[in-house]
Batch of 2 targets.
Target 1
Amino acid sequence: MTTTATDAVLERYEAVIGIEIHCQLRTNSKMFCGCSTAYDGAAPNTHNCPVCLGLPGALPVINRQAVEYVIATGLAIEAHIPERTQWERKNYFYPDLPKGYQISQYAIPLAAHGRLAIETSAGPFVVDITRAHLEEDTAKLLHGEGGGADRTTLVDFNRSGAPLMEIVTEPTIRTVEQARRYAEELQLLLRAIGVSDADMERGQMRVEANVSLRPRGTEPFGTRVEVKNMNSFRSVERAIAYEIERQGHALDNGEALVMETRGWDDGRQLTYRMRAKETSDDYRYFPEPDLPPLRVDAGWVTAVRDALPELPSARRARYIALGLGAYDAAVVTADPTMLMAFDAISAAGSAPAKEVANFVTGAHAKALKAGDANAAGTAGASTPAGIAVLLGAIASGTVTRQVGRELLDRHIADGTQAADLLADAGPSPISDDAALLGHIEAVIAANPRAVADHKSGKPVAGFLTGQVMKATGGAADAARVTTLVRERLNREG
Amino acid sequence: MVFPYHRGMATLTRADVEHVAHLARLGLAEHELTELEGQLNHILEQYAKLAELDTDDIPPTAQVIELETILRDDVVRTSLDPAAVLANAPERDGDFFVVPAILGGD
């Protein structure tokens, strides 16, 4: 199915989408016990104690850091942090939940009524966030190979009790792009404030979407389907698009949709039924008697707020104010190494932001890929200050762009001081158009054949530019010469 | 203060008892359901008696001791020996617990 098919459905129906994201928090220990969260790649059932195994009599104690991470997230999404919060038991039976209940937050989440602004191709959009709360992760189930009666499920409790933050939006998302951009922006935010690694493929960030359709111009919500198992942003986009198309076709054909949970199959590029929701979930929430209420006083909130780093939205705005375009500002902000290199080089001199951005997304990124650069703005043997001087020289026209690139390469390769490189590069290039035009006229006069060729439609600008560069001993900006040559030739007709 | 999980006290019907038994994964015979319907309603009557008290000025609590905000620092402590973890497993496969096959569904 293509995006066009989704658009066709959306001409007749409006999509109503809400997103739930679970993310593992970057704590050292689990939510309610001291077992390590560094169980990735460990042998099964090696990171456990009576608390996370749900053994009778074991008592949970709240991890302060996990609470702070949710408060930090709440502040970053402009949510309300209640003075007093509490914990509830969410009761259900499943082999990944040893106690028969999950300790979660229901009545009073740690953060409520937040928002996250995103940019889409149709302009800015604000996603309303209902809540962010804290809970414990479940164990991991592996389904055995055997068939029929021999089929078994294997349980690894290493993940059981790891701190998990659930962030739920209002059903105000209307397009596939908004859904994807929200997930991307939230991941960027969580990483920027350091609360979660939020790697989707590693299950550190799990995105679920509630999708329904209603005929355009009508109010009542349609039958809602929950979609799971989307392990990449691309999957989020494809799965929601698929659901919109599937539901649209069903509604067009008068087929009834059912409340159900569907999984995304990335291989087959479709959603499949995981379980029908014949009755509404009945989790019988009640206050967790093993945990006292949690008071979040104003001083604590202030301390967490003061410790927040610059948020991605603020950073992009600052970069745009420095002179970057919206696209470059977003690209640099989206990469933690790139943004640190950008800040380091910007702070080390007075090179224009645009030049610094070109460098960190170009030569620096290339060196980084080769393992020869770092977030401090250093590439190879270069220094941020040296890079800043050379970028400044390029921007001011002290050297041509081409020569400047060569000087940057040499500075990176052997660390030669930027001042020495500029001194060796010789006199400033001819940046005066009048002087360049003089050279161009001379070259055209000496090559009448070129003008004749141009009139018969042959491309000659490259040849003439080369002649001018030769005449100036390379002391001209080739790109500018080409522009001037083209203008001059166009006057010939 | 409004608690969304609060439900008004009413008589439990047979369907309620069957629903609760299902949620608790209890397979009960007809005569057991009948017996429990009576017992559960008797318990509810006792709570109805408590509800006669005027508690308007008493804040709701789920705790019997007046503690608040008990937190621990994010420090890793040694986990149990896996042999001890698996010692009580009804069935195991290598280092895993084994449970009957789960094929989605609730």
Note: The mean pLDDT of chain A is 92.
Target 2
Amino acid sequence: MNRHHRLAIDRIACDGRGLCAELLPELIDLDEWGYPVIHGQAVPADLLGHARRAVAACPVLALRLERAAGDRPPPAA
Amino acid sequence: MTQTTELRQSTEHRLLRGWFETGGPADLTEHLRRYGPAPLPSERGARQARAALLQTVEQAGLTGRGGAAFPTGRKLRAVAEGRGRPVVVVNGMESEPASRKDEALLDLAPHLVLDGAALAAAAVDATVVHLCLPRGSARATQVDRLTRAVAERWRAGLDRIPVEVHRLPHHYVSSEETSLVQWLNGGPARPLATPPRPFEKGVDRRPTLVDNVETLAHLALIARYGPSWFRSTGTADAPGTTLLTVSGAVHAPGVHELPLGTPLGAVLAAAGGTSRPLGAVLVGGFFGSWLSAEQAPAVPFARPELAALGAGPGAGVLVALPADSCGLAETARVLGFLAAQSARQCGPCRFGLPAVAADFHQLAWGRPDAELPARLPHRVELLAGRGACRHPDGASRLAATALAVFAADVRRHLETGPCPGAALPPVLPVPGGPAADEVGWR
């Protein structure tokens, strides 16, 4: 289990094309309108290759693979 | 009035104390008579003086009063340590329809807010302060008065860092910090995808401190009286007082100042007590949580205790729902409003939120179809955590707590149709008017 990568979606950029869910059904589902639902953000090591392919396939570059840092910055005011 | 009551007033009222003593709003003369000028860090040895002010705010344990309750000192430090000269944004938008506290504070003690802005700007070594206020007729007089107050302070040499007053479109999500940043950068007042967050890269790509007006007013007092004074009321984890807008079935609805940690029952008592038997309490506002009438009174109004119940302080809103009202109808109206206020940028909010609102409408007033009982909770759950901003999360929380707290009403509505309460006039003040998209975002 590699906890150092996780999936993130730019929700404004995301258009609901659905390729990510086709390429990475283990981690991504689509809701009834075709927008992705991520199951568990951490990407296991054995799925890292598939995750990278899904990221590369997103036509609007909305899907990212991030290295999980420690603390997140301050939230909204 | 007994002596105990007076004592309680003197410790509980901080931001509103002047108003309680004089019965009127504090103009600059009255403000200076009461507090003197803001203790700005000296320009000699500036770096050390700024560091001392930052430390004072951190030690006080002040948290943001705009909704997120994030530690203000930590945010100040993050901005001060960012790349480039910072910008300060003062958030006086108050787009939460059930809240009146920022408007009241800006009316009664505008110079506490402006002192706080000047102090925060000095602490992070900012070059400019942007005061963001809503456009439109409802608060136009206040915006004019504040514009004059800013000019008066500048002429009197009280502020070192210039303050610019802005009037923004008044939509629910336009007061979100990234909306303010995007608008100040010349764009629409709609939320941005993050990261970067404003504290890293905001207005003009500079580190940007966005703080609610009440937060800054507390900061103005902390700079004068110190962290121990600030911590002398409230709880250890949530020190100080907070402004609360209490409405619904209470004898004295309005804005009240109370220590953080005050049990909700005591908050309602401070608002004159309940005027009718209670059905439920909404805490936090339109993004808030319903609590049952049995559970609510003992719950302390403070972030840690509310968080344990999945709730939050929000912008300090408490609404007492009478027992004969229909919580499902109240929630349906709010969800309809939130759907119309969506910036329509993210799929889950654009499609999921109107779908949840429609389901609730059907549940409250219509004939629910056979799939609704299974479909609605699923749709509500899928709203959370799937937007650029927290708009869908807030709506999801409101809807989820409604389904839980009003579970008996849900069953009744499903079995026998709308209850008599669903036809009563609304308790929650849901604004009418056109959808945000029709009004425009610029």
Note: Chain B touches chain A at residues 64, 66-68, 70, 74-75, 78, 91, 176-178, 192-193, 195, 197, 199-200, 210-212, 215, 345-348, 351-352, 355, 382, 386-390 (CB under 8 Å).
